[in-house]
Every structure is written in structure tokens, then in C-alpha cells.
Amino acid sequence: MELLNLNIPSWSDLAYWRPEAILCGTFLAALLGDLIGRGRRPAISFVISVFGLITAGAYSVAAVLHGGAAHTIMGDLIIVDGMAAFFRLLFILAGLATVLFSWTAEEIMGRKRENKAEFFYLTVLMTAAMMVMAEARDLLMLFLSMEAVGLVSYVMAGYMRTSLRSTEASLKYVIFGAVSSGIMLYGLSLLYGMTGAMTFDGIRAGLLAGEVNGLSLLITVILILAGMSYKIAAVPFHFWCPDVYEGAPTPVAAIFSVGPKAAGFALMIRFFYTTLAAGADPSASAPLIELINWPLLMAVIAAVTMTYGNLVALRQLNVKRMLAYSSISHVGYLLMGFVLLTDAGLAAILFYLAVYTLMNLGAFFVVVALNNHIKSEELDDYAGIGFRAPWLGTMMVIFLASLTGVPPFAGFAGKFYVFTAVMDRQWFWLAILAALNSVVGLYYYFRVVKAMFLTRPAEGADTTPLKIHWLQYTVLAVLAVPTLVLGFWFGPLKVLADQAIGLLSTGM
Amino acid sequence: MTAADLIFYALAALTLVPALWVVGSPNIVHAGFNLLLTLLGVAGLFAWLGADFLAVAQLMVYIGGVLVLVLFTVMMTRVPQAREADSGAKRAILPGLFALGVLVVLLLVATGTHWGAPALTDAQPTTAEIGANFMTSYIFPFEYVSLVLLAALIGAAILIREPRGTEEDDEAGAAVETAEEEVQS
């Protein structure tokens, strides 16, 4: 047995992996805290989770400010680079906002606050697992990190144990997840068979060196895409999405709609860019991409996803379901950045994801805040809510307008970059279709605004002002202000996204 | 045809024939027992390929653990008898054609690909090497999986714990009853 050529991780690797290590520690500490409080003191876990997330966030910010080259660590299985740093911040924002907001959400804590604190530390672990997804550079870590996020998600979807809908959501998530993982594993095994390599770089080298059969590579890519499309809920692997979002507790749906999706995109960017496109002449398409006609494949998936999501969202009368379909259509817009696998397109995805995280979390959180009071997510029950909770209503308008992509809001800037990325390479039909889709979006987003502000509530309905917890207002404001500001002052975020992708393409 | 080829075809048959049964059988208990044979065939294929550790793991995890669990679950829950309409031949046409198409494509891939992975020349025991790798190069995924398994454990505890609320219990109970009535009617 040969033990000389082993690549043994050293403790110094942890220096580049502090935020993740802190979150893993936070998970264990919060778990222990829950045990010490005998499950009756959720505050212990809540405080530990918040503190851990903030500490990890501080280290992530420090890492971004420090800049620096890519480091492959943990036996070359993990890469920490600009893109990983970007996604770290995104996931910590989503995780922290969700934990803070859930503290006062009845769906999580129970009507009499009788529930335990598992939700908080599961969210922390999910945040850490999503970070690993954005850092994987090896097939083994790719699969493990996806399964880790999946396992935590299944539990969180079924968190309302006594609700049939929640249990059903969890079961659907598990079954779809298992099937798509199986399909993806088959694709990964084919890829290993073709190249004999496990790392993404090694796979590209193997594909470029060996004689590649176009059909084999195409089928392999499609099989792997199946697994990843499930994570980001792209057509035709979107079936679980509306049911899970509707059945799961709303704060869980909120983090599902941004966290695992962004993590899926991070993994897709790193995997497909590194294996198929990296290192190619930037002025022309990479040969491997040409071989399987990747642009057309992605353009069709993007077009179908955004159109399907939008058209079905039109008919939804449940706000949560509507937001679920709207999130599918946003995945379609995001996939447009993938069509060419150019730096501009990928940076546009990162920018859009950051904006999308802010506005979509916000929209879902408003639904949570309202659900605390009116116990419903039906559009009809939203009638006149804008007068009962003016601030909440205003913020919902900001989030929805931004989701639509109307100019002074951040969503417009996000769409603008994605659209220009495809038009740069003459994919006009895709850009036109996406613009038409945005107009369709206007209708169903503003139907909610109309219900909140223009519809009179039914005779005899409760019209007392709603009391929203200050913590909820704070979190919503933290999400709403950037949604507004990023609409006209988006330079810094754009620079950050460009840097992240620039480091990906140069820092092999 | 050498002896090794014969063994391979025997193992492949052991995997495939019961697998067809698993898919086609209207009786879910029969399907479960046939799955046992299929998984045994897969373990045999691993052993045939020289992956001794995987073969034993397949036996212990899938046959010893997962399958026994599946059979227990099937036998302990009330299984609605498969209705005629569900197993009708008409409904099988489209999925059957789809499956056939998938088979053709996968066969084309399997035969057309230039396999670059190094072929196994002579089989050596793999267990020691796998163990050494887990403790050195692959210690990170090894530790990471333990964290994931801990989360799975907690998740299982959450999903099976006794609910504390009382009102919601009644709601859920009523919902279950109505669902059952719908199934019966």
C-alpha cells in the first residue's frame, strides 16, 4: 500500500475556512444549548445561532476586503475564491434574516410558542452546507454538499409536524430529490468514466485531451443538469416547487426560494464553467460548448422556464403559490446568463442573485408577518391590508415592484445586466421573450398590490391596524432599503460580482 | 466465452430479471422481495469488478438495512390493493415508449463513448486503501458526512416527535379522517 502521494489536509487550511467552521460549531453549540435548556428555552439556541451567523458574516466580510487569490484546501476538494466569498455573504444574509424573522413567526414557534428551537440550528447548518456547495471543486464534494443541503431542507419542509400539507411537502421534496440525485449520479459516473478524473479541472483536461463523443457528452451534461435543475427548480424539474413552498412553513419557503437556489447556481457556475468553458479564447466559444450546442440547450431551458413560471403564476390565487411560480420564472431569467458561459453573463447571474435574494426574501417575509395575523395566504384575504399595516404594505410594494423589474428598483438593474449579456452575442429572441415575460409579471405582482391598497375589505371584516413586531420591521427594512438603493446605485455590487467571476476565470 | 464472462452474464441476469419483476408486479411485497435479488446481483457485480469493499457494503447497507426497512414498512402499513385501472396495459404504452427511448440513448452512450478512466488490470483488496484514504486525503468529506448524518438524526427526531399542540392535533386528525374517507369512496 502506497501512502506517499496522499494529499493530507493540514490545520492551516482552516484559516481560509473560518466562516464555515464557525457555522458548524454554531450548529453544535446551539444543539447543545437546546439540550441544556431541555428544549424549553428556544432563546438559547436563537441567540447562539444569531451570534454565530454574525461572527461568520464578519469573517466573510473580512475575507472579501482582504481580497486575495484562490486557495484550494482540504486535500484539494474545496476551493475558496472570490466567487465563494460572494456567495458566503449571500447565504449568511439569507440565513440570518430567516433566523431573525422566524423568532416571531407563529408557523415556526407555534401559536403558544410551544415549539422547540431546532429550526434555528438547522438553518445555521443549511447555511454552512450551502457555502460548501459554492466551494466544491470535486465530484465527491459536489454530490455530498448537494445532499447535505437536501437533507436539511427535507426536514425543514416538514417542520409543521401536525400539518398535513407540510408533511406532504416534505415527502414530495424527498421523492423528487432522490430521483433527481439518482439521475445526476448516473451522469457523474459517465463523466468519470470518460475522463478518469474527479476534480473539475481534471475533468476539463480529460475532456480536452481525449477523443470526446458529442452525443455522450451531451447526454452526460443533460443528466447532470437534471440534478441541478431540481435544486434551482428549472423546468422540467420544477414540480416540487409550488407544492413545497405552499406546504412548508412560510419562513422555510422564504429561505428555500433563495438559499438552495443560489447555491445551485453557484455549483452550476463553477462546475459547467470549469469543465466546459474555462481557459478558452474569450472572443470565441469554447470547443466543448460548441460540441454539445450548449447555448441552444440553455436558451431553450431558460425560455421555457420563465414562460411557464409566469403563465401559471397568472392564475394563482394563493400568494405563496404565486411567489413559488414567480421564483420559477426568475430562475428562467437567471439561466439566461448561462447561455454563453461568458464572464459578463456569469457576473450578471451573481448580481441578479444578490438582488433576487433581497427582494424575494422580503416578499416572503411580508407574507409571514401577515400570516401571523390573518392566518391566511389567500389573495382575497389581503383585501385592504395596506390600510391596516401601511408600512408593511409599502414594503411589499417595493419588493413586488422590484420583482417585476420596474426601473428605479434593484430588480431592474439585475434584469438589465442579464439582458445585455445575451444581447452582446446576438441572442435577441431570448431577450425579447424575457422582456415580454416581465410585462406578464407586472400583472400578477400588481394584483397583490391592488388587493392590498385598492380593494375594500368585505363588510364587517376586521379593520383594526395590525401590530407588527419591531424585529420583523427591522429585518424588512434591512431588505427593503438595499432593494431601493441598488436600483440606482448598483456600481459597488456590480464590481463585487465582476471581481468574483474574474477570479474564477483567472485563478484556476 | 470465458468463465468470467459466464459469471458476468449470470450476475447481470440476477440483477435484471428481478428488476423487471419489481417494476411490473402489482403486489408490492413481491416487488420488495425481488428487489432483494436485484441488490444481491449488484453486490455480485461489484465483487466481480474487484470492488470487494463496495460489495460487502452493498450487502450490509442495502440488503441488511434499507431493504429490511422497506419490507417492514410495507408489511406494517395497510397497502391499498392495486386497482385494475392502475396496472392497465393502456397506461403503460407512453411510459414504456419513453423508457425504451431512454434505453436506446443510454446504450448509444455506453457503446459510443471513449472511456478514459483507467481500466482495472488485476484485482487487489481495496479495504485497507479505502480506510487509509478516509483518514488522510478524504478526511474532510468523512468529517462532513458525520455532520450531515447528525443533521439527519435530528431531522428524524423532529419528524417523529410527539406534537405538543392540542388544537392542531384535532385539525390534523380530522383531515386524516376525511382523506381516508375520500380514499374509500
Written overview of the protein:
The complex is a heterodimer of chains A (508) and B (185). Chain A has one domain. Chain A contains 21 helices and 2 strands. Chain A has helices at 18-36, 42-66, 82-102, 106-109, 118-135, 139-157, 164-195, 200-209, 214-232, 240-247, 250-277, 287-291, 294-313, 319-336, 343-374, 385-388, 390-404, 410-423, 428-453, 470-485, 491-506; strands at 71-73, 78-80. In chain B, helix 2 (28-48) packs antiparallel against helix 3. At the A-B interface, helix 1, helix 5, helix 6, helix 7 and helix 9 of A face helix 4, helix 5, helix 6 and helix 7 of B.
Record keyword descriptors for this entry.
heterodimer; A: 508 residues; mainly alpha; 21 helices; B: 185 residues; Four Helix Bundle (Hemerythrin (Met), subunit A); 2 domains; 7 helices; 0% strand; globular; disordered C terminus
Describe the protein's topology:
The complex is a heterodimer of chains A (508) and B (185).
Chain A: H1 18-36, H2 42-66, E1 71-73, E2 78-80, H3 82-102, H4 106-109, H5 118-135, H6 139-157, H7 164-195, H8 200-209, H9 214-232, H10 240-247, H11 250-277, H12 287-291, H13 294-313, H14 319-336, H15 343-374, H16 385-388, H17 390-404, H18 410-423, H19 428-453, H20 470-485, H21 491-506
Antiparallel strand pairs in A: 1-2
Helix pairs in contact in A: 1-2, 1-5, 2-3, 2-5, 3-5, 3-11, 3-15, 3-21, 5-6, 5-11, 6-7, 6-11, 7-8, 7-9, 7-10, 8-11, 9-11, 10-11, 10-14, 11-14, 11-15, 13-14, 13-19, 14-15, 14-19, 15-17, 15-18, 15-20, 15-21, 17-19, 17-20, 18-19
Chain B: H1 3-24, H2 28-48, H3 52-76, H4 89-112, H5 127-135, H6 139-160, H7 167-184
Helix pairs in contact in B: 1-2, 2-3
